[in-house]
Amino acid sequence: YQVNVIGTKNVVNMCLETKVKRLVYTSSIHALSEPAPGIVFNESREFNPENVLGEYSKSKALGTLEVLKGVEKGLDAIILCPSGIIGPYDYRVSEMGKLIVDFVKGKVKVYIDGAYDFVDVRDVVEGLILACEKGKKGECYILSGQQVSVRQLLKFLEEISGIKAPSFKIPQPLARAAGFFNVLYCNLTKIKPLFTPFSIDVLASNSLVSCQKAQDELCYSPRSIYESIKDAVQWFREERII
Question: Which Pfam families match (predicted)?
Answer without folding.
Answer: Epimerase
